From TrEMBL:
Keywords: ATP-binding, Nucleotide-binding
Taxonomic source organism: Nonomuraea guangzhouensis
Protein name, as recorded: ABC transporter ATP-binding protein
Claim: Phosphoprotein is one of the keywords in the record: no
Keyword Nucleotide-binding attached: yes
């Protein structure tokens, strides 16, 4: 699945938030959105998962205008792991994941054996099949996030949109989730706060500042120390990770002295 944003702008309460953004994610590519708080990352993602209609420009999936699709058709093309996802009390893990099958069914259709097989497979992919009968309220934050990812996978959509998927997770859970997401083979568009994680996992980086694209390209070409300081106001060291060899970014306060470092 190829995702193209051409000149996408967005307003909230008549206030312009995103201004003429161009962005492409090729099939199987991981594109990370980064930028300071309030730069428009979540707003831009909302235009992709159809929570906010663009005020200008177009969002295309494999050349088709996403906003001209019927809702169920759009849901079969893209799934979302939002920043804040409410799950009602009393639902089991399997019931939550089964909700991902709604886009493949008509209003009164019952669950089929094929649906149940998709749910089981999705839970296996995220390592949560052992918890199928557990209530969501009994799970840890990292476990809940993996279940919500399984729900998105149950849609069987080739594009996955993620808004700060590692938010509120401990560092081990963050890395496990990112490893899992990276291994899915889907086209990925994710807003990430952590520059080091974005550089390590994404194929392409898009930097937003004040709703505009301030930079885009491969991580090490975009996230230079000078650019990071200009956009984020922090000092940065960029180089290979001493353990993984992946791109690695370490940051420090601009007021920190060399001796303190």
């Amino acid at each position: 699945m190829r995702l193209d944003l051409a000149g996408v702008s967005a307003h909230i309460d008549a206030r312009p938030i995103v201004h003429g953004v161009d962005l492409t994610a090729g099939p199987g590519e991981f594109v990370a959105l980064v930028g300071p708080n309030g730069s428009g990352k979540s707003t831009l993602l909302r235009t992709v998962y159809r929570a906010l209609r663009p005020s200008g420009g177009v969002v295309r999936l494999d050349g088709q205008d996403l906003w001209r699709m019927r809702p169920r058709q759009a849901a079969r093309h893209r799934a979302v792991l939002p920043q804040h996802s409410q799950v009602g009390e009393g639902f089991s893990v399997a019931e939550v994941v089964a909700a991902g099958r709604h886009s493949h069914k008509r209003l009164l259709d019952r669950e089929t054996s094929a649906d149940r097989a998709v749910v089981i497979t999705a839970l296996e992919r995220v390592g949560m099949d052992w918890a199928a009968d557990r209530l969501m309220t009994t799970l840890s934050g990292g476990e809940r996030q993996r279940v919500l990812l399984a729900r998105a996978l149950a849609q069987e959509a080739p594009l996955l949109v993620l808004d700060e998927p590692t938010n509120h997770l401990d560092v081990g859970s963050q890395l496990l989730l990112l490893d899992l997401i990276r291994s899915l083979g889907l086209t990925l568009l994710a807003a990430l706060h952590d520059l080091d994680q974005a550089a390590a996992y994404a194929d392409q980086i898009v930097v937003l500042r004040d709703g505009h694209v301030a930079g885009h390209g491969p991580p090490l070409e975009v996230l230079t120390p000078a650019f990071i300081e200009e956009v984020f106001g922090v000092r940065a060291h960029v180089g290979p990770h001493p353990i993984t060899g992946r791109p690695h970014i370490a940051v420090a306060s601009p007021s920190m002295t060399d001796q303190e470092r």
